[in-house]
């Protein structure tokens, strides 16, 4: 295994581990949502913290799950044309798309969200609701974390496509 393949494999393994761990969060989110509904409509008991916890779980699942979705080809693309292209053409599109669009977007999102998150951490920003979760700064931390994870997986996908292009030339 070359260094390039080892790097791609390591990133893929990290993304796979994170994605599978996040899948369990969806079960917790569904159970907590069910509990909130039963308590509210069955017993007239409400909990701001529980409702916010669902929002935190939802944000975590979708923000951090974006890299796993990319890894498994689940993001939207213009498949009407893409699927008709040869493997080499698809590799070109994936490589250029990663280099021109995905990686710069992730770097931009990371950079633009960094101060926003640092400020939130510096004041330990908490919920404006009485009884809410006193950790909005943790929720906001998902922004640069998502950008970093998506950048890593985007790099792996771009390197995988580049390797395919290199192999195609040597054959």
TrEMBL record:
Residues annotated as transmembrane: 21-41, 53-70, 91-112, 132-152
Principal cellular location given in the protein's record: membrane
Domain Tripartite ATP-independent periplasmic transporters DctQ component, residue spans: 29-162
Alphabetically ordered keywords of this record: Cell inner membrane, Cell membrane, Membrane, Transmembrane, Transmembrane helix, Transport
KW Protease (keyword) present: no
One Pfam family of this chain: DctQ
Membrane topology recorded in Swiss-Prot or TrEMBL: Multi-pass membrane protein
Coiled-coil residue spans: none
Superkingdom classification of source: Bacteria
MF terms in GO: transmembrane transporter activity
An example Gene Ontology CC term for this record: plasma membrane
Keyword Transmembrane attached: yes
Compartments, record wording: Cell inner membrane
Job of this protein: Part of the tripartite ATP-independent periplasmic (TRAP) transport system.
Sequence similarity: Belongs to the TRAP transporter small permease family.
Assembly notes: The complex comprises the extracytoplasmic solute receptor protein and the two transmembrane proteins.
The protein, known as: TRAP transporter small permease protein
């Amino acid at each position: 295994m070359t260094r390039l393949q080892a790097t791609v494999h390591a990133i893929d393994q990290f993304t796979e581990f994170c994605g599978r761990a996040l899948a369990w969060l969806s079960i917790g989110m569904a159970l907590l949502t069910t509990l909130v509904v039963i308590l509210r409509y069955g017993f007239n008991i409400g909990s701001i913290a529980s409702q916010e916890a669902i929002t935190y779980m939802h944000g975590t699942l979708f923000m951090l799950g974006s890299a796993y979705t990319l890894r498994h080809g689940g993001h939207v693309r213009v498949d009407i044309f893409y699927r008709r292209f040869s493997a080499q053409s698809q590799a070109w599109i994936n490589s250029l798309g990663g280099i021109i669009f995905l990686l710069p977007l992730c770097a931009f999102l990371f950079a633009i969200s960094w101060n926003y998150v640092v400020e939130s951490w510096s004041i330990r920003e908490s919920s404006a609701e009485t009884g809410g979760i006193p950790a909005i700064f943790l929720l906001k931390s998902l922004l640069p974390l998502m950008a970093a994870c998506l950048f890593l997986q985007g790099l792996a996908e771009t390197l995988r496509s580049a390797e395919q292009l290199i192999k195609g030339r040597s054959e």
